[in-house]
Amino acid sequence: MSLDLVALGEVMLRLDPGDARVRTARSFAVWEGGGEYNVARALRRCFGLSTGIVTALADNEVGRLVEDLILAGGVDTSLIRWLPYDGIGRTVRNGLNFVERGFGVRAPLGVSDRGNTAVAQLKPADVDFGALFATGVGGLHTGGILAGLSDTTPDLIETALYAAREHGVRTSYDLNYRPSLWHGRGGLTAAQAVNRRLLRGVDVVFGVPTADPVDVDSFAAHAERLAAEFPDLRVVATTLRHAYSANCHDWGAIAWRDGEVAVATHRERLAVLDRIGGGDGFASGFLYGLHQGLDLLSCVEYGAAHGALAMTTPGDTSMATLAEVRALAESGTGDVIR
Amino acid sequence: MSLDLVALGEVMLRLDPGDARVRTARSFAVWEGGGEYNVARALRRCFGLSTGIVTALADNEVGRLVEDLILAGGVDTSLIRWLPYDGIGRTVRNGLNFVERGFGVRAPLGVSDRGNTAVAQLKPADVDFGALFATGVGGLHTGGILAGLSDTTPDLIETALYAAREHGVRTSYDLNYRPSLWHGRGGLTAAQAVNRRLLRGVDVVFGVPTADPVDVDSFAAHAERLAAEFPDLRVVATTLRHAYSANCHDWGAIAWRDGEVAVATHRERLAVLDRIGGGDGFASGFLYGLHQGLDLLSCVEYGAAHGALAMTTPGDTSMATLAEVRALAESGTGDVIR
Amino acid sequence: MSLDLVALGEVMLRLDPGDARVRTARSFAVWEGGGEYNVARALRRCFGLSTGIVTALADNEVGRLVEDLILAGGVDTSLIRWLPYDGIGRTVRNGLNFVERGFGVRAPLGVSDRGNTAVAQLKPADVDFGALFATGVGGLHTGGILAGLSDTTPDLIETALYAAREHGVRTSYDLNYRPSLWHGRGGLTAAQAVNRRLLRGVDVVFGVPTADPVDVDSFAAHAERLAAEFPDLRVVATTLRHAYSANCHDWGAIAWRDGEVAVATHRERLAVLDRIGGGDGFASGFLYGLHQGLDLLSCVEYGAAHGALAMTTPGDTSMATLAEVRALAESGTGDVIR
Amino acid sequence: MSLDLVALGEVMLRLDPGDARVRTARSFAVWEGGGEYNVARALRRCFGLSTGIVTALADNEVGRLVEDLILAGGVDTSLIRWLPYDGIGRTVRNGLNFVERGFGVRAPLGVSDRGNTAVAQLKPADVDFGALFATGVGGLHTGGILAGLSDTTPDLIETALYAAREHGVRTSYDLNYRPSLWHGRGGLTAAQAVNRRLLRGVDVVFGVPTADPVDVDSFAAHAERLAAEFPDLRVVATTLRHAYSANCHDWGAIAWRDGEVAVATHRERLAVLDRIGGGDGFASGFLYGLHQGLDLLSCVEYGAAHGALAMTTPGDTSMATLAEVRALAESGTGDVIR
Amino acid sequence: MSLDLVALGEVMLRLDPGDARVRTARSFAVWEGGGEYNVARALRRCFGLSTGIVTALADNEVGRLVEDLILAGGVDTSLIRWLPYDGIGRTVRNGLNFVERGFGVRAPLGVSDRGNTAVAQLKPADVDFGALFATGVGGLHTGGILAGLSDTTPDLIETALYAAREHGVRTSYDLNYRPSLWHGRGGLTAAQAVNRRLLRGVDVVFGVPTADPVDVDSFAAHAERLAAEFPDLRVVATTLRHAYSANCHDWGAIAWRDGEVAVATHRERLAVLDRIGGGDGFASGFLYGLHQGLDLLSCVEYGAAHGALAMTTPGDTSMATLAEVRALAESGTGDVIR
Amino acid sequence: MSLDLVALGEVMLRLDPGDARVRTARSFAVWEGGGEYNVARALRRCFGLSTGIVTALADNEVGRLVEDLILAGGVDTSLIRWLPYDGIGRTVRNGLNFVERGFGVRAPLGVSDRGNTAVAQLKPADVDFGALFATGVGGLHTGGILAGLSDTTPDLIETALYAAREHGVRTSYDLNYRPSLWHGRGGLTAAQAVNRRLLRGVDVVFGVPTADPVDVDSFAAHAERLAAEFPDLRVVATTLRHAYSANCHDWGAIAWRDGEVAVATHRERLAVLDRIGGGDGFASGFLYGLHQGLDLLSCVEYGAAHGALAMTTPGDTSMATLAEVRALAESGTGDVIR
Questions:
Q1: Mean pLDDT score of chain E, rounded to an integer?
Q2: Closest residue in E to F64 (Cα–Cα)
Q3: Farthest-apart Cα atoms in chain F, separation
Q4: DSSP 8-state class, residue D103
Q5: Which of B269, C231, E65, F222 is most buried when burial is the number of CB atoms within 10 A of its CB?
Q6: Backbone phi, then psi, for C320, in 5-degree steps?
């Protein structure tokens, strides 16, 4: 096998009413998506790396549709755990995500229907991460969405991170705080506790909250504090976004590595078709940069450029090409602060 | 209010891939549907009666889409109980039904995703049936799908049937056995026990199993036995269907009332576009006949004609007009056996 | 110019809900169509003759859409009379035809919205038929739909027929009785009176009613009687159709010419997608045969084959090719009775 | 019944070519719409009030499609007067509105085809407004579009307004001058005469013309003059719009009540998908504010916010939610001038 | 790698106008397809084997779209040879296949646009079959379409077959004679000469012409003759099809192995949606049977059942599931003649 | 005939994935387009002149679809040369153009597949330009795309230009340099040599490269030099475009005639839906101005306005109306420099 990266997370069926609204739609386009998965998919289809997804699906027609979409995404499906379906969804389900993209003053709006899903029931013993990583996997990407799905998924992630550590696999984690996942379960405080526990095994963290507009010194100080608390942490990176409307954002990114800070080109009033997946687009472009051994500024530029392109197409996942990412990244005017 | 009929049951979002398959689809048309609801909708839109639906929905964008579809169905929405959504679907959901219509040797295929839905959580105390029926409701229609959703829905139905009895509301019940609902919960035996308990309060029963081809004497004998066991039972009716392929069925119906048996026109090799909802089409046409005080043969002819028309359009629910039903029913060659 | 055929009649915008119903549709495909026009269009696009349409349209966006469709139909648009639109449709309109194709026991159903249209207001003085026919037009095709549109259209047709007679232009007329056009205006009796008046100038008549099944001798006798009454009448032709369902028809045709009767291949249980335009398909194939100087049997075979093919595609107008018509016509088993 | 508001006006079928043009379209999405009706629909579906529509439709498939759409709009259909169709549309029709939304420098463009419609033929005696208002209706909304449809509709409106007055029903009227309706019938002068006659019975008037940019003092002076002329008039409100292109407008609103003037947040370069219905969106949001007893500034903010949201979706009618309107209205920076 | 089967052939982009015609279409759905490839795809997606495709594509957006479709097909893409595109298609192209499915008397019709494609330029030296087969490939499937593409493809196939022989890889070959490929290049005679040359290295041959209706003895005698001429040939199999119309076929299959003949269930008047790919469906089902070591009758039943199911969905490739194939195959009434 | 203008060039089938990407599309809308043809089509459908196209097509279903689209374009099809198709596309093909429109930072992207097309094989002897122009044609429009298709097309163009000269037909030529056409054939240098040879017979040249921003004096000087080199050259005109993103361009135009320079209104940040065909839109509007004898400023204003409108609709060709062009042109603020 020897995959360049394995993602660990849920893959949902995205149901997209196009330029209509969920609540009045009469048809939906479908895509697949998931915060962790989107990174693996983009690394495969845009950036040409080999990737896989560790997840679970209920074995019914919807699960097979998700598989069909993952196959088109080029992501290895052999690590998917298929759970038998009970015919009605009492015991296990597949995640669904009804999301409309918004327009102008009307913000994107969605409803995820992901209770009781197959992946939320995954337990550490269900996946032999040791065997997986022994095949020579290059990286493991996971994050706070998976961590918030159930009470068992943090254990699953922890097991994966420790196995990765043992096999020298680079680990990345996107904080991705989603209030709905923690509603009634302790909220942000509980999420932070879980993240804190898991960050101990992480090399690269995405999604650290920042001020708007960002202050480079504050960001650097925050990153230093994180690095002090989590000694394995080498890289802290995040996108910078200001949404004027659903279709018009200021867009950039910033990253810290070992004392160095790089700020990607600040793109003003970027035209956005569907913002879902922009952050994952950043993470995948950034990880591609790391994989290629690029300097930190190139990493943030590739990440920001890819995230910008990912928001020009419908669906959660990127349809950009490496040539497009490279051209956009290299036309940038980012900066490095040492 | 004074509705002609109230249905009690779940309303799901039907996701329909048209002439494609669920597992390879890239878009879905949406409709609403539910065995009990379909009867109320058809009585309203095709037959011109006033109807309502007693059900529950989770208050999210999907639930509001179902409401949008029910409104178009003309069915009173004021009896819907809205449950707050938790943002993820752990505690309550809306039912989804991914179904493809099949073609030729490829049978219709679906997967219902209705675990943990709002309606499955309805309890007798949640609905004041007494107050509802006191407004002068003409009929109550419910059935075995709702009864199979959870351990509490039989109690709900029983409460409704008793309240109907008290207020002189005619009650009808469609057996509608669905193996998936009873899988792991006792199967057919358990379903039959529940049905047996509930039939005590029922005037009209639909969906009694019959041989193929039907034997009038056996059917009559079976109906007599049911009437003996359930003294309130006045009418036993069911469709007769033989499917040569997804698109070609023999189609008819038979009914018993107080010793009389009527057999609807036998339609050979009927062209079928989407068979989902054919049985509900029969029930609604039949109930219309009862409501209008038609003779038994007219009731089965209206039911069979409406069921046949309901299968000529996509979606679970009928798009037929009363004029079409009447013309088709009256062109029939059914028979009465006394 | 020197067109092979000019049609005189209305061109409507057909609004087609596909496999849905008009009353529940959320979108419509649009086509153009009209009984007389369809013949000109098919002679141009399928049979390769040059044709034009004498008609009138209100000059608004809908009229321009109809023009766009006529252009695609290859029919000369220079003979269209454009009337100024009043912005609301009080004084003049374009004809609209909302028609669904039906399925199985559900018959095709439509509603034409063609009151007060531009063409219904055409008067004899509006068209210089003499000048038109002096350019060397080969044939004039018109019929009973146009004749029924208003009180002035019979005069228009009569003027055209007389001018055709003077210039040696072959004239054909499709009776095409539509009850809605004559409702409240004298019904069938009035229509027949108008047809009788107009048939005096006609060479070829289509759409003569026949028994089902047809009796060759009776048909011949009927044709002889017509020829006796209208001495110019040389050809009497009509389709033979028995509809088992919306999608399954027996289909054939019969024609008389100067004492000879030809019966086209009888096609049993022909698969029909959209029956609208089948009769016009026959007329155009038949007229092509006359134009090419084929024998009577070939004329009916070309007509019947083209009509059969025209019903395999959506829309009112034919999408068949001459090669397909020829192959189907020549595979036939029709017969000539002398 | 006891509806919160009844609208009096026409409901047309909107035929929408999406991002194509009417004149080259091959398909149309359909919506329902009408200046007066849109207000009732939004008050029901966005704002949760109960509403009905007093109108007339021809009883054919198109009329039934309009009914299907009105049902989805949640608006009570029991007040619709159905006129028998003649099969062709000579005597009565349903209104159609072919409208494209425009893009950039290409302006929205439409053609309404509403001559001779059922509602244009409504006469005072056709509706028993006294009985209707006696059921406890909260408000009556009508306007200048209906008034311009025919010579009888002003009488109809006047009758309704007087009956409303008698029963203490609040009345609102949107001037909505449409040149096409008055073309050849006296133009703006005639329209103003009718409006002047009808405003005598009106409490709230929308659509008063203003300068661009608006001058608060002039507006106030104009409102005072109207109030002096029409003593019952309590509120004068209007939207402020400057269109840079089809998709980019400055948008705001202003209102006067009893000497107080409130100006809604001025939104610059608002992204617009389909501007049709923006003004009706304002009226419904404003009336919601009045119904809830909000202060004047809140009324204009709710109106302007709802109008802005209504222009972010296709179709004439709003798909916004109350939560969205509230959030947008409350984020505003409007002002009150006393 | 160790793939269960590798196909060698072209993958084209299928452009499908749905129920419209190519010559009047305004939109096309796209699928991928190719006689040899379809077998690999079905073995992967329906039957669960691992498969790959040896082919070549021009590296442009169309080629990448084909790759996207192949990925969804689950077929290994690592064996695709990508040729640089010249920006215009003078030197190398990707194959396109515009095909409409037909309806009733209107036959399916297509036009392949595959001149000068990448795969037609493949030469023996371009693929290291020895290295490929050394990885443990189970089977090689190729056929007469590839052989007819250019003057070099027979050499390519011969090289592949010899390499397969050396590595003990089972070889199958579908004769698939397409007149257009041999037009102007020697026609059927030339095709037969190439086939004869290539059959020397083949174990299983599909597509041998048979009489309609088939005569078992003649078929057996023909197979014996082939086996005598090509000593390696172990299996001769073919479908039996009689098309009454585009949508209605009699369908069956017959096979010979080592003196035994098996005849699959004869399915009369099978409903067909899109016949393209039916024969490839048979080959893949049959090869699955061989791979599983089933008896000859089961092989033909699986093949015929899968072919029947493949024709119930749009596109060239199968969307059937193994469960459906098994159920249909086992419901059959085929026979073995020894 | 007596056409106002004849275009000489290729007509391709444009395959348009809408707001998706070619490489991930599952359906394509189709349009026809070609740099030279687009001018003829717009002059016919927007500006009302009579036009024709001299081109060649392979006679297969794709060619007939292109013909269907040209007919809708109103352009005379009698000058199309139909070449027999070989069934596979080895010897002759029709041009295809897969182009996506881009969004924001994602640029439009396409791949033309036009190698070996029918028009690239046209030779001077294939068209009798003398006879054509003798019918009284007003203008000939051709350009550098056709010139780049093959080694024979420059000869074809030269022949046409000389014949035009002889018959007093005005000639226009759009340089339209496309690198892909000249890749491997000498690149820009070769293209310029061909253009230089052909400009000798040209009256009006479009597409002369300019600086961004343009300098009027430099442009004038460049035009003077061209006029000196090519004495017949009377007019030099070109568009001025600066693309901020796929959907937002600055847009203008400039032209020189006999020492006079006119600069069209500079439109900043014009909203662009699909930029393909904008330049051809300019050329057609400009030529309309020349045809009407307008002054130079009006010509550039009509050209720039029409080009701007042409980019507000999907497809290569304009859907604008003359009324819209006139209104936009006349609202301009262009200038004349003498």
A1: 96
A2: E23
A3: 58
A4: B
A5: E65
A6: -75, 165
Q: Rounded to an integer, what distance in angstroms lies between the CA atom of residue F11 and that of residue F57?
A: 8
Q: What distance in Å separates residue F310's CA from the closest CA in chain A?
A: 21
Within 226-285 of F, beta carbons closer than 8 Å to D belong to 267, 270-273
Paired with C239 in beta bridges are C253
d(CA E313, CA E281): 12
Nearest CA in chain C to D25: C65
- Residue B247 and residue B269: Cα distance in Å, rounded? 9
Angstrom distance (rounded) from CA D299 to CA D290: 7
* Torsional class of A315: left (φ above 0), alpha (ψ -120 to 50), beta (otherwise): left
Q: Is E329 helix (H, G, I), strand (E, B) or coil?
A: helix
Q: Which residues contact E189 (CB under 8 A, 6 or more apart)?
A: none
Is B46 within 8 Å of chain C by CB?
no
**pLDDT at position D1 over 70:** no
Interface contact flag, E21 C271, Cβ < 8 Å: no
* Residue B326 amino acid letter: R
Other Cβ atoms less than 10 A from the Cβ of D186: the count is 12
Residue found under tokens 């829905």: B153
Residues of D in contact with C98 (CB under 8 A): 61-62
CA distance F74 to F51: 8
Contact across the interface for E106 and C272, Cβ inside 8 Å: no
DSSP H helices, chain F, are 35-45, 61-72, 129-134, 144-149, 153-166, 179-182, 187-199, 216-229, 278-292, 296-310, 322-330
Rounded CA gap, C173 and C202, in Å? 7
Look at residue D99 and give its three-state secondary structure: strand
pLDDT of residue C23: 98
Q: Which two tokens stand for residue D135?
A: 């059921």
pLDDT of residue B83: 98
- E61, E179, E183 ranked by CB distance to F111: nearest: E61
Size of interface B-D (CB pairs under 8 A): 12
Indicate the SS3 state at residue F66.
helix
Inter-chain contact C104–B272, Cβ cutoff 8 Å?
yes
Structural domains of chain E in order of their starting residue, each with its CATH number: 5-337 (3.40.1190.20)
Structure tokens at E258: 């080592």
E50-66 tens-digit pLDDT: 999 999 999 999 999 99
* Helix (H) or strand (E) run with residue C21 in it: none
Q: Are B302 and B265 in contact (CB under 8 A)?
A: no
Question: What tens-digit pLDDT sequence spans chain B (338 residues)?
Answer: 689 999 999 999 999 999 999 999 999 999 999 999 999 999 999 999 999 999 999 999 999 999 999 999 999 999 999 999 999 999 999 999 999 999 999 999 999 999 999 999 999 999 999 999 999 999 999 999 999 999 999 999 999 999 999 999 999 999 999 999 999 899 999 999 999 999 999 999 999 999 888 899 999 999 999 999 999 999 999 999 999 999 999 999 999 999 999 999 999 999 999 999 999 999 999 999 999 999 999 999 999 999 999 999 999 999 999 999 999 999 977 888 77
CA distance C162 to C168: 10
Residue C275 corresponds to which tokens in the numbers above? Answer: 């029956």
CA distance C280 to C238: 10
ipTM of the complex: 0.96
How do residues D211-266 score in pLDDT, each as one tens digit?
888 899 999 999 999 999 999 999 999 999 999 999 999 999 999 999 999 999 99
Backbone angles phi, psi at A32, to 5 degrees: -110, 155
Which class for D124: exposed (0-12), middle (13-18), buried (19 or more C-beta within 10 A)?
middle
Task: Give F309→chain D minimum CA distance, Å.
Answer: 6
10 Å Cβ neighbour count for B328? 23
Q: How many CB atoms lie within 10 A of CB E240?
A: 22
Task: Characterize the bridge pairing of strands F235-245 and F204-206.
Answer: parallel
